[in-house]
Amino acid sequence: MSNAIDRKTALHVGKLARLELTDAQADASAKHLASILSYVDQLAEVEVPEDIEPFFGATESVNAVRDDEVRPSMDRETILRNAPDSDGEFYRVPPVFG
Amino acid sequence: MNTNTQISAADREAVTAAEVTTIIGLEVHVQLQTKSKLFCGCSTLFGQEPNTQTCPVCTGMPGSLPVLNKQALKLSIKTGLALNCEIAKHTKWDRKNYFYPDLPKGYQISQLDQPICGVGYLDISDSDGAFEPKRVEIERAHLEEDAGKSSHDESGRGGKSKIDLNRTGTPLLEIVTRPDMRSAAEAKAFLQSLKMILTYIEVSDCNMQEGSLRCDGNINLHINVGGQKIATPIVEIKNMNSFRAAERALDYEVKRQLAEWKETGGTIEGAPKRTFGWDDQAEVTIAQREKEEAADYRYFPDPDLIAVVTTDEQIDAIREEIGTLPSRLRNDLVREHQLSEYDANVLVNQGRGVVDYFLSVAKTCDNSKLAINWVNQEVLRHLNETNSAIDQYPIGSDGMGDLLKRITDGDLDQTRGKDVLSAMMEDSIDAAAAIEKLGIRQVDSSELDSLCQQLLDANPKVVAQVQEGKVKALGALVGQARKINPNVNPGTLQANLRKMLGVDG
Hints:
A: mainly alpha; flat; B: alpha+beta; Arc Repressor Mutant, subunit A; 3 domains; nine-stranded mixed sheet; three-stranded antiparallel sheet
């Protein structure tokens, strides 16, 4: 089973994750990604009977819901303390264009 | 690349509007009317101080866990039922991954392959006959969370952008149509019809200024040229912030795409979808900066959330709550209250509150014709002038019904009725008190006789005309009579004058 990942794919995945990779880093990542995929591919060896429905999570329980009730939010000062930059009202981020 | 035979510039230039078909599909984001957010208990109130309605869940703090708001699910199902959609018995949550500063988790919780609402439809028509009535199919409607709000430095000095996360996590239902609309007018009618249904079933206030209803359009042209059928590249138009803007943006884009194709001959083959924004001031669509790579959202099932299973009983119970939808209500009003199509349309377009007001007034005064005239004229004029809603109208339906009952019974004529209504509004009093205040009383027969005699004595010309057979000339005396005694009923007055002149019947 071939899970070869080329440098181009590694650079693309890096870009999606906002990581700037050098070619050397991209090549190393490609190797790591290929090895992870091969590991996960072991699942493909399991024979699944036809009548088994797809399964999306780690539990079979369903319907964890809550009532539509407002609960107190965190105060702004506390929550903005997590931000690298704020003006006390807003988060401030590097300029974003369109 | 282009598989079509090359079409010459001259042939392109010769194409007329008759050979061009416009293809439009819409994506509408509707903010559901819940008190709290989709996956946490923060308030969804609009217009609050920035970043005062957030918590670890909606700001994406590690270790926080989302829990689904069951009201948002219910409102989604209600919408789906009103739009004739299949409702999913089993629905799940997926992460749509992208980076943007107003999306703190780095992904949006959405629904990829098991949307809560499947295929449905909405029938549209135009009362002025701008297009034939038609059915627009709904592809799907899925529930997802909203992002925050960014404000950018527009001074051109490259200042930092500011982020408010109050809106982050507010429930949105994204309704996606099939490309079934053939003109901007049809798209506008779809949006108007959709908005009316959503407000009738009370799933959203659809306030476009506050972003409760947002619309993107996908549009291209199919052109028949010399036996060949070609399609222009698809453009997605964003930022259509009002129905009028949507109509104008789509109309503009039709012209722009035709002009572009005539110039370049570029077709859909090998052309990725482009995104344009509508500039409402300049009245043009503007190409937005192309992303260097096609969007790659890497959807996968959200491991923090479990599936939702809905039973037939639950769906039926929600169906019970929908009530009468606008199209059905229009028919009922025409059939059961003998309203004209026009009057029924005007009334229903005002929303459920005004319809209920009318129904109550009509019942109290037992006169649908009078009730619809007063509601569609007096009441709606006041609401328009004061830009207010029916629940803010100073005269309740009981008070209005009482007033119109007096007119129906002949105690008041309509002109005096309007004076009474003004007095009721000015002094916050009921009809009886307003009539008392204005000194309106029935004019008794001896009073009426003496008034008529006075008019006949003062108007020998009118008398002569009537005796020559022009009975209508009496109408000229009504104004004079009202100056002398404003309480006189024009109908009774004219009848009495005819009797005195011996031209009765």
